[in-house]
Amino acid sequence: IEPRRSDYPLLSQNLTDPRISQTIGQRSSNWNTGTFLNQNPQLSISQIDPQQFHPSPKPQMVRSNGWEPALTSNNNNKTNPSPDSNPRFSFSKLCAKLTSTKMLFFMVGFILCAVPLAVMTTLWLNARSSSTATTTVASVTVSNTSVSLPIQCYAYSTLNDYSRNYQNGYSCCYTPYDIMSYMSAGWFRITGSAGTQLVTTAISTMNTCGSSYPGYFNGTLPTTAGSMTTGNVCFYTGASCGYSLSPISVINCNGYYVFYLIPTSSTSYRYCTTN
After folding, report:
1. Model's pTM, two decimal places?
2. pLDDT 10s digits, 92-135
3. What own/partner pairs with CB < 8 Å and gap ≥ 24 does 32-35 have?
4. What are the residue ranges spanned by the domains of the chain?
5. What H or E segment, with its residue span, contains residue 79?
């Protein structure tokens, strides 16, 4: 193999020297490894100076030129990515995945979630407005002073039977009776033909107010709006207060009263009312 001038820069400078030409000829003839070692038996491969052999830079340049387009192409792709190169953020592929079936399921789910939410919101707004209205109604003005009345003044049952009015003079026996089958314990307002309140004076006769044993309130009525008093009801059975029920409470609702009444144990007992 004849060495090239580009591989050995010194050759290009001293090719005219006959001694150098002779040396080059000898080295080229000894390029074969087996021949070189046979001629120099005392010389080992480790003693060979690696600087005597200069690798050709030309193949490296060719190799670098061969890799350069690929590296340039990769760098261009990283620097300026295509908008559709990433399928995760591709709008066109996202639209392609949204089929009509998926859209239908989405709309059904949205409706199922929106309807209960709207109902709950409506109920909450109604409850809030009702609470505001109740608070407003429960506040009354007495002598230029605002008084808050208790809720019992607006949540009650009524007694309006004309036969229980003491002034009407009805004897025994009229319904509805005041036993558990006809009434439950709670707040009552006396209205209509029954009058406006329970009798507050002692009754000393039987067979009146539509029953055998009439009852009257044994206590005092509250005089201030919003205030409450407590007493008991006595029933005349031939003896004063032969049978009684307690506690019986009364609330002044600024113009009318409400009474907390308890069912009687027999149809012979009845609450007696008056105007």
Report:
1. 0.49
2. 666 666 667 777 777 788 888 878 888 888 887 877 765 444 33
3. none
4. 151-274
5. helix 57-79
